Amino acid sequence: MFTNIPEPEKTNYIEIIQNLGGTVSDEKTFDLTATHLILRNPIKNEKLLSSIASGKWILHPDYLKESEVQKRFLPEIDFEWGGPGTCKYMQNIAPNSEKLAKCPIRWRKKLNGNKDMFGAFHNWKVVVFAEDKAKLSTYTKILEAGGAEIVPTSDADSALDTISHVFVDVKKKNGCKVDLTSFVSHNIKCLKPEYLAFYLTEDPLPDVDSFILAEAKELMDASASSSKRHAMSSATR
């Protein structure tokens, strides 16, 4: 796979891969069957985040240039983003992209070193609410790439005991359009989708409570206040 590579340059890389006996996935969206992602500069998009979440090799294009010279696919480690071989490339990226550039090797090693962990979101069971179909597709692909199980919104009520996360990206008009009451009452984290990128790029992992939806916080606070009043009432009897 490729991302953030200009078309003329990408055409040359495709030819190199094919000449060396490899195959190319040139889909516009993430391809789970691909083994490598080639990118010049880290960019927070579906392909990169999905590749990180699934532990794929994420390499600088120089990997293909050097492989062409040697007439064989070289060991990837010297060209992997986040590894020691890419330190020289870090000088050319924006400061706010450094964490994104450093995390591919961390997740690949973590996932490859744990045979019981099938992706960064292993054991997550998730419901995603998003009005924009493109965003819904992106969130779903990233989560599934990381091993999460997606629960259709139509089945959410019957799966409340097993759902681990709810992500909501809807336009706000007179409050959230999604009723979070049942999720909050089952202690399910109701989060902003931005949590996915931060979860993959931050080390140590970010505080999940920082990404809880405002509407969910209000419900949680109301529930806590109600429980406190009930406890005080019981104590005075």
From TrEMBL:
SUPFAM superfamilies: BRCT domain
Keyword flag Repeat: yes
GO MF, one example: isomerase activity
This protein's UniProt keywords: Cytoplasm, Cytoskeleton, DNA damage, DNA repair, Isomerase, Nucleus, Repeat
Pfam families named among the record's database cross-references: BRCT (PF00533), BRCT_TopB1_SLF1 (PF23294)
Subcellular location(s) per record: Cytoplasm, Cytoskeleton, Microtubule organizing center, Centrosome; Nucleus
GO BP terms in the entry: DNA repair; positive regulation of double-strand break repair; protein localization to site of double-strand break
Primary location class: cytoplasm
Xref: PANTHER family: SMC5-SMC6 COMPLEX LOCALIZATION FACTOR PROTEIN 1
Protein name per the record: DNA topoisomerase 2-binding protein 1-B
